[in-house]
Amino acid sequence: MDSEAYGRFRAWGRAMIHDGHADEIYQTSTMGALLDGLYDGDVTIAELLRHGNFGLGTFNHLDGEMVVLGGTCHHLRADGSARVAEPTDLTPFATVTWFRPETTLRVTDPIDRKDLLDRIDRALPTTNLTAAVHVTGHFDAVETRTVMEQKPPYPPLTKATEGQAVTTFRDVDGDLAGFRSPAYEQGISVPGYHLHFLTADRDHGGHDLDFTLVEGEVRVATETELHLSLPRTAAFANANLSPDNIAGQIRQTEGG
Q: Is the predicted pLDDT of residue 73 greater than 80, yes or no?
């Protein structure tokens, strides 16, 4: 860690102490369980939102993508449409936090996904903690995909995500929301960046694969605690949560 990065880390640490609490991520189930085809969870959206106002995930039966912004849970469907989720909807995998950004970056010139994420990495106090990331602005293009609802017996995620339609939104205002997780969380979460997109009118969105941001703002919060809530189901108890080549499976299913 160079001196500049160390200075950012110390400043962040002082802020956390002064704040009097450590920010927490709440997650239900694990990425390993999702890879094994565990698409039925027992956590309602109402319960999920008691643990955070920002995040992402999916819905039971793998019925689309989830993005949580400002305490509202949005259900992104396979056709690219979006609606507000019902409080009684269930999720097999989701991650939320109370979003309290400590770092803000302004973007005034067009920048692609790789370069923006590299810039965020450089601004973080450390990459050994999970960061909640919110990008809002005007995009030249956002390439997305959305998982399709599955029926039992469920296939593994690598099969369920084959041949998905890709939707590209062009010249659009919107939000990217998600997390940057450390490599050591592999199998629990998605290592690296995992982001979902929602248009500014809240009518469309999907799982981010690529984008070019024309101008906008990035806000980042570094989290220090993980509350992992594991499913109370027989399927989870009997699942293979340590599959072969888990890193490759996550790259294949999550893309981007």
A: yes
Strand ranges, E, within 98-165: 103-107, 111-112, 131-145
Q: pTM to 2 decimals?
A: 0.91
Report the pLDDT averaged over residues 1-8: 58
CATH code of the domain made up of 3-254? 3.30.1330.80
Distance, CA of 18 to CA of 8 (rounded, Å): 15
Share of the chain residues as helix, strand and coil, in percent rounded to the nearest 5: 25, 40, 35
Q: What single letter denotes the amino acid at residue 244?
A: D
Report strand pairing: 24-28 vs 225-229: parallel
Could you tell me which of 165, 171, 254, 164 has the C-alpha nearest to residue 211?
A: 171
Choose among 199, 186, 217, 194: nearest CA to 111. 217
Helix (H, G, I), strand (E, B) or coil at 169: strand
Query: Looking at this protein, which amino acid is placed at residue 10?
Result: R
Q: For residues 99-136, b (16+ Cβ closer than 10 Å) or e, as one string?
A: bbbbbeeebeeebebeebbeebeeebbebebbbbbbbb
Question: Residues 173-228: pLDDT tens digits?
Answer: 999 999 999 999 999 999 999 999 999 999 999 999 999 999 999 999 999 999 99
CA distance readout (Å), 238 to 59, 91, 179, 242: 21, 19, 28, 12
Could you state, in order of their start, the residue ranges of all structural domains in the chain? 3-254
Rounded Cα gap, residues 59 and 76, in angstroms: 10
Pinpoint the alpha helices (H) of the chain: 3-19, 31-35, 45-48, 113-123, 157-160, 234-237, 246-254
